[in-house]
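Re: [ENG-882] Designed sequences occasionally contain unexpected residues at chain ends

Forwarding the minimal case from QA. Structure tokens:
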């Protein structure tokens, strides 16, 4: 039989935002967004089901609750999502464009049927329909609306759940698309119901659970989630969750609960139990059903369960017969694994189930397609997850199901999840921490964030070569000039009080005579002399020029600044600081030759590569002071500019200590964690385990001022250290963290990262790279060496990456 979509379409009109159906019912419709996948613990699933049951318990007799989950196959439009014209952006666009994923829509419809005076009242005067209702219908409608409002209040309070009222236009569009099979062109289709169902050119199949005997003997609230490869933890999901996002097909899950009246249904249950008990000896199936009904009757009495009628069905459709068959097999397998029976309708049954699951037409669904059950069992069939949703702003990662790019806001300017943005990356050697950090940094510098990176390796070199015009890579070896001039200013406006203080600290570090460094009189004298130096309008300020200025003008300076001679020990200053002058041991720290007077001025991405000086703690402490001055100028000076500083392989340097001053790197970094938390900036450090950090109050400060942690697959010992250090007690967060694993041999190789925003939010993202990004983020090995050698020849990182891609086009990348 053929039904045109005009007949299937259910809406007669609207009254007060509620849909009036052709079947005489009135429907209030809402849009629901569920928690993201893998985010619910056993307790959270149980709580969610209990709250749905509590919310629906007071729905009035004659009303329907319809939860409709629609999953539509879509092709990822990278040209609309991955914007930009850089080399990596173009490659990423090409890599992900067209990837299949599921779009999900969850609509909740509350329908009240049997208002006999509703349609005549509406037809008489739509604007004053309530005045023309009979008193009985007025009372029923008021009770219904009040009950629905109560349900919505409860659902709004569910964690990580959003519910909103659908507008009239949204309801019209949704119902129209539903009866037309959600055709991409939004055109009209005829519906054919025969041995199978067709919607235009698409063929459809329906599976229904509509009889008590189709239910399993036991219906657990949650089951073990087996949709991910085995890891160090067990995740959980609702009983039929695999029919949601994990079913890679066009499909609709319809779950309808009819509230016929609790007492009425209890009486019916008692009568049915007695009838089956009397005839139980005639047939084995009757004996089984009789036992089940008696068991249910006892349970209802003891638990004061709320009875209802429920319907569960899933509609599959596709224009490709092979894809439809594959989806049908997946549904059969999922139901079989949970011991559900099913019914596949045809002809009249198929027509009734499809039309009866159109929003607003639930009351025409034949009673034979409902099963008598407890409300808790009906809600136990709900699916609980919606897809990952991109934040408005943020950094692109990949979701955990379809591996399509989505944005996660790790800056959080609105402070929805975190009050600041300091972070720690925790990963074992070879766990993918470099690629994780580089994925973030590369996007941040494109978004205009000023980034300063401090490393003891070559992790950031490739990114700086990809963006040479905005990058400065400072690889100090003690031989070539450092290329940083803290004394350099372009105008007097840059000579702030903070700038003078920083320069004074730097001079005292160069001086490194403990008695002088700890003498307040000497410190104030240094500040005054620095100010005097800039008052002389030096042509190109630098420390060597400052040193010579003091050497040649000390008497005049002391007189001009009213500094007693014993308050500034000039001979000590000139003798010790001569090490930073030409011919001195540290001459290249401050030497300028006109071409490298200040390599970092005007740069947005600055990398300090300190590998070759890490054996000299004093020199490292000097560079750290210069880095602090850089951060002051690049990040803290202008609060309108976003800035971040990264410390790679931080645990390797945290314990570095200058034997003379007693200062260590850890104290400087701890200060950054405290300082940047209050500014428009952030600091990130990369470690292998929290246990690597010194056990002292500085580390306590770092932990207390860390808002985000990124965890890559590691050992149980490290997971335990993380939970202890950050006081993580949320079981969902702990299990989620331990569930991560990398799969570098999958058809689409990926790494996984657990990201936690303090106590409020945690998720797992995947990293899947295009070939270009994969090679760009190499930090060692043969590929890295080949790219580096090629870069030296071509002078172009893009060309070097393109060359290795072309030579390895037949090979599969292994993250």
């Amino acid at each position: 039989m053929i039904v045109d979509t005009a007949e299937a379409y259910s809406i007669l009109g609207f009254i007060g935002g509620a849909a009036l159906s052709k079947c005489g019912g009135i429907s209030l419709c809402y849009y629901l967004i569920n928690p993201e996948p893998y985010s619910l613990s056993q307790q959270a699933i149980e709580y969610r089901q209990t709250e749905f049951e509590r919310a629906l318990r007071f729905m009035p007799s004659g009303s329907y609750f319809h939860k409709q989950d629609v999953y539509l196959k879509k092709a990822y439009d990278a040209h609309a999502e991955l914007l930009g014209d850089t080399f990596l952006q173009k490659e990423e666009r090409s890599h992900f464009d067209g990837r299949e994923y599921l779009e999900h829509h969850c609509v909740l419809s509350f329908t009240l049927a049997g208002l006999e005076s509703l349609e005549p009242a509406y037809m008489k005067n739509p604007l004053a329909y309530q005045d023309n209702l009979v008193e009985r219908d007025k009372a029923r409608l008021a009770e219904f609306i009040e009950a629905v409002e109560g349900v919505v209040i409860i659902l709004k309070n569910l964690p990580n759940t959003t519910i909103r009222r659908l507008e009239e236009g949204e309801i019209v569009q949704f119902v129209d698309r539903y009866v037309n099979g959600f055709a991409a062109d939004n055109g009209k289709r005829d519906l054919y119901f025969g041995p199978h169902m067709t919607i235009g050119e698409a063929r459809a199949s329906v599976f229904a659970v509509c009889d008590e005997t189709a239910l399993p003997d036991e219906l657990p609230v949650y089951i073990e989630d087996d949709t991910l490869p085995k890891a160090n933890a067990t995740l959980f999901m609702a009983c039929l969750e695999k029919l949601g996002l994990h079913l890679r097909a066009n499909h609709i899950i319809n779950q309808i609960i009819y509230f016929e009246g609790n007492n009425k249904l209890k009486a019916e249950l008692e009568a049915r139990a007695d009838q089956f008990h009397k005839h139980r000896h005639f047939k084995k199936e009757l004996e089984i059903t009789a036992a089940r009904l008696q068991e249910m009757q006892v349970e209802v009495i003891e638990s004061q369960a709320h009875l209802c009628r429920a319907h569960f069905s899933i509609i599959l459709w596709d224009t490709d017969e092979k894809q439809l068959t594959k989806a049908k097999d997946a549904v059969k397998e999922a139901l079989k694994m949970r011991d559900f029976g099913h019914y596949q309708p045809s002809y009249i049954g198929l027509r009734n189930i499809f039309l009866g699951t159109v929003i607003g037409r639930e009351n025409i669904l034949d009673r034979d397609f409902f099963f008598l059950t407890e409300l808790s069992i009906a809600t136990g069939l709900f699916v609980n997850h919606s897809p990952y949703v991109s934040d408005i702003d943020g950094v692109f990662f990949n979701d955990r199901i379809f591996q399509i790019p989505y944005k996660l806001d790790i800056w959080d300017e609105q402070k929805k999840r975190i009050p600041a943005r300091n972070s720690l990356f925790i990963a074992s050697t070879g766990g993918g921490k470099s690629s994780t950090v580089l994925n973030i940094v590369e996007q941040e510098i494109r978004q205009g964030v000023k980034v300063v990176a401090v490393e003891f390796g070559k992790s950031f070199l490739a990114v700086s070569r990809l963006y040479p015009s905005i990058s400065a890579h400072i690889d100090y070896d003690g031989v070539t000039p450092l290329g940083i001039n803290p004394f350099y200013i372009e105008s007097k406006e840059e000579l702030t009080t903070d700038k003078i203080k920083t320069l004074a600290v730097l001079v005292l570090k160069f001086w490194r005579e403990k008695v002088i460094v700890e003498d307040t009189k000497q410190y104030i004298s240094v500040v005054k002399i620095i100010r005097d130096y800039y008052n002389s309008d030096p042509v190109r300020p630098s420390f060597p020029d400052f040193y010579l200025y003091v050497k040649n003008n000390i008497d005049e300076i002391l007189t001009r600044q009213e500094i007693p001679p014993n308050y500034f020990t000039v001979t000590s200053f000139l003798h010790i600081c001569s090490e930073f002058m030409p011919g001195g041991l540290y001459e290249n720290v401050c030497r300028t030759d006109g071409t490298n007077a200040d390599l970092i001025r005007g740069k947005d991405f600055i990398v300090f590569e300190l590998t070759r000086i890490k054996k000299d703690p004093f020199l490292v402490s000097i560079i750290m002071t210069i880095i602090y001055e850089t951060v002051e100028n690049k990040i803290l000076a202008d609060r309108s500019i976003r800035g971040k500083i990264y410390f790679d392989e931080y645990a390797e340097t945290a314990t570095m200590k200058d034997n003379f001053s007693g200062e260590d790197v850890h104290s400087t970094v701890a200060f950054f964690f405290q300082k940047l938390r209050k500014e428009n900036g952030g600091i990130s450090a990369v470690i292998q385990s929290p246990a690597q950090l010194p056990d002292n109050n500085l580390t306590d400060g770092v932990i207390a001022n860390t808002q985000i942690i990124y965890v890559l697959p590691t050992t149980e010992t490290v997971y335990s250290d993380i939970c202890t250090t950050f006081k993580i007690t949320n079981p969902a967060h702990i299990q989620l963290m331990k569930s991560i694993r990398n799969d570098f041999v999958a058809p689409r190789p990926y790494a996984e990262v657990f990201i936690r925003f303090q106590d409020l939010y945690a998720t797992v993202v995947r990293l899947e790279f295009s070939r270009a990004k994969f090679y760009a983020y190499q930090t060692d090995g043969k590929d890295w060496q080949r790219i580096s050698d090629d870069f030296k020849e071509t002078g172009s990182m893009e060309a070097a990456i393109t060359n290795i891609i072309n030579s390895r086009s037949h090979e599969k990348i292994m993250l």
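QA comment: On inspection the terminal residues look reasonable. The domain at 418-485+592-741 is CATH 3.40.50.300 (Rossmann fold). Proposing we downgrade this to a documentation issue.
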